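Whiteboard transcription, Tuesday session. T.W. wrote the C-alpha cells on the left side:
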C-alpha cells in the first residue's frame, strides 16, 4: 500500500463512506448490508451493467442454490438484488475500472478509475470476483496501435461513430445489439462473422437479417485478415471470405470476441495476495490492509467456496467491521429486519 503526501482538493472528488469495487451479486448485496448500518456506498464496475458473472456470463441459466429462491436465472438474481438495494440509493459508476487505490495520511482511501473519476472513502470493499473482465483481442498484427482511435472493444459514446464507416466483428449479443443501434448513426455498417449462425437473441438476429435484406447494412461471412492505415488511423481491412479476399474501406472496427477475466490492477494495490486471491480473516473479511475488505470470489480462506450464498454471508460480517471505521467509538446494536422499526424505516417498509 503506497502512501501519498496530500489528499488533494475535494473539487470533483467524490467523498463517501464506502466504495465497493465490483457490482457482481456480492458487491450488490454489500450495498444492502452496509446500508442497514447507515454506510453509504458508491459501486464501480468495468462492465456497463450490474450483475458481474451472473449477468455477463450466464444471464439465462438457472441457479438452484440461492436460499429461498428454488430457481432463479443469472439476470433475475441481479434484478432482484437491484430491487432489494434500492432503498439505500447507492450510486453506480459503470464502464469504469478502478485503476488506483492508495491510502491517505488521514487513513481514508483515494481511488481513481480509468475514466478519470476520483473517490475518497473511509472503507473500501473489494468484490471484484474473478477480476477484471477484459475484451479478447483479435489476433491481428499491429492492432494495438489502432486501439482507442479506430479499433474498439466497447461502445462508450454512440455519437463518436456518427457519419463513420463502421465494421462490427462478432456473432454474439454485443455484435448484434451494436449493429442494430449504430446502423442509423453510421455512414455505412458492415457486420462480419466467421459463420452464418449467430449466438445472440433470436429477435436481434431477425432484425439484423431484415436490415441486411433491405440493404441498410452489409452482412459478410468471413474473417479479418489484415489492417491497413497510417499506424494510428484505420483506412481499410482485408477480409477473407469463401469467395476470396476483399479490401474493405473502414474508419472504425468494433470487435466483440468475448471477455476473459484477469486479476487486473487489484494486484498493484499492495494488498497481500495468495495465488491471485486476497486472503482474509473469516471474522471480518478484512484484507492485510485495515479498512480494505475482500468479499465474494476474490477472497480466500480455509474452506472457501466460490458460491453466491457464501459471498452474501461475507458481506454481512464485513459490514459489522466496516461500521467501526465509519463510526469510530459508536456501538452497533444487532437487530433483525423482521422486528426492528429503525431497520424497517431504512428499508422504507414502515
Ligand atoms: C456458468 C456459471 C455458473 C454458475 N452457477 C452458480 C450457481 O449455480 N450458484 C452459485 O452460487 N454460483 C454460481 N456461479 C458462481 C457465481 O457466479 C460467482 O460465485 C459470483 O458471481 C461471485 O460474485 P462476485 O460478486 O464475488 O463476483 P463477480 O460476479 O465476478 O463480479 C465481480 C465484478 O467486479 C468487477 N471488477 C473486477 N475488477 C474491477 C476493477 N478493478 N474495477 C471495477 N470493477 C471491477 C467485474 O467487472 C465484475 O462485474 C456460477 C458461475 C459461472 C461462470
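and on the right, the sequence the group agreed on:
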Amino acid at each position: 500500500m503506497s502512501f501519498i503526501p496530500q489528499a488533494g482538493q475535494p473539487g470533483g472528488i467524490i467523498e463517501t463512506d464506502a466504495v465497493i469495487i465490483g457490482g457482481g451479486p456480492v458487491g450488490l448485496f454489500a450495498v444492502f448490508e452496509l446500508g442497514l448500518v447507515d454506510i453509504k456506498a458508491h459501486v464501480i464496475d468495468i462492465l456497463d451493467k450490474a450483475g458481474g458473472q451472473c449477468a455477463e456470463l450466464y444471464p439465462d441459466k438457472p441457479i438452484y442454490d440461492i436460499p429461498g429462491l428454488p430457481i432463479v436465472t443469472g439476470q433475475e438474481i441481479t434484478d432482484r438484488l437491484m430491487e432489494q438495494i434500492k432503498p439505500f440509493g447507492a450510486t453506480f459508476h459503470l464502464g469504469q475500472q478502478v485503476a488506483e487505490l492508495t491510502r491517505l495520511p488521514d487513513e481514508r482511501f483515494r481511488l481513481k478509475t480509468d475514466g478519470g473519476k476520483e473517490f475518497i472513502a473511509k472503507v473500501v470493499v473489494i468484490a471484484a470476483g474473478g477480476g477484471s473482465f477484459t475484451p479478447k483481442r483479435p489476433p491481428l498484427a499491429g492492432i494495438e496501435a489502432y486501439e482507442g482511435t479506430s479499433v474498439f472493444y466497447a461502445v462508450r459514446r454512440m455519437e463518436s461513430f456518427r457519419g463513420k464507416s463502421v465494421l462490427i466483428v462478432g456473432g454474439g449479443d454485443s455484435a448484434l445489439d451494436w449493429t442494430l443501434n449504430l446502423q442509423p448513426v453510421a455512414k455505412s455498417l458492415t457486420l462480419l462473422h466467421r459463420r452464418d449462425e449467430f449466438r445472440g437473441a433470436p429477435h436481434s438476429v431477425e432484425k439484423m437479417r431484415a436490415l441486411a435484406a433491405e440493404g441498410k447494412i452489409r452482412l459478410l461471412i468471413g474473417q479479418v485478415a489484415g489492417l491497413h492505415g497510417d499506424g494510428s488511423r484505420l483506412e481499410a481491412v482485408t477480409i477473407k471470405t469463401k469467395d476470396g479476399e476483399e479490401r474493405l474501406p473502414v474508419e472504425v472496427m468494433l470487435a466483440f470476441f468475448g471477455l476473459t477475466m484477469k486479476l487486473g490492477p487489484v494486484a498493484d494495490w499492495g494488498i497481500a495476495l495468495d495465488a491471485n486471491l486476497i486472503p482474509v480473516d473469516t471474522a471480518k473479511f478484512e484484507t492485510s490492509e485495515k479498512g480494505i475488505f475482500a468479499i465474494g470470489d476474490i477472497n480466500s480462506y480455509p474452506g472457501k467456496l466460490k458460491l453466491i450464498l457464501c459471498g452474501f454471508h461475507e458481506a454481512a460480517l464485513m459490514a459489522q467491521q466496516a461500521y467501526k471505521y465509519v463510526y469510530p467509538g459508536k456501538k452497533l446494536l444487532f437487530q433483525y429486519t423482521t422486528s426492528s422499526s429503525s431497520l424497517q424505516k431504512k428499508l422504507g417498509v414502515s
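Someone added at the bottom: The CA atoms of residues 51 and 127 lie 12 Å apart.
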